[in-house]
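To: structure subgroup
Subject: Chain for Friday's discussion

All,

I'm putting the inputs and outputs inline so they're searchable in the archive.
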Amino acid sequence: MNRCTIRFSTLPLLAACTALLGLPALAQTDQGTQAVQTTSSSEAVKPNVRQFPAKALRGEMVVLAPPVITMDGKQDRLSVGARIRDANNHFTLSTPLLNKPLLVNYMRDNTGLVQEVWILNAEEAKEKRPGGTATLFNFTTGSSTSTAPADNGKTPYHQLPAYKR
């Protein structure tokens, strides 16, 4: 009673086919060609320069307490689901970036929050790009340039500034 339907002459052929299944996957990546290039050349490999959207702005970002950040010295926020990419174009979390000033390209969402951030490498930092100095929304209620009378807290009551009626 012979239950084995595979002949022993087909086993080497089956083993060769399974070994070759992984080769097309290697052809789809640049890792195989980069490894050959880096080992064959003695010069330093330049980092890749990514293509950024035309709307992306340049700024210096510091993560204070996620999602609170500063962008060019002004307090700002990351949006829900914000994506941060490091210099190697890998996604990273905001917590390892705490209190580190980083040169970045960024984009805002429709509500004005920072949605996408790309941390720049040395080659990308050399490119000129407009900064994000434009204010989208101003929700402040008071400022130092206000024309309203001010009080320092030590002025006697009868000398307090009066508002025009």
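Points worth raising on Friday:
The chain is about 20% helix and 25% strand.
Residues 11-20 form the longest helix (10 residues).

D.
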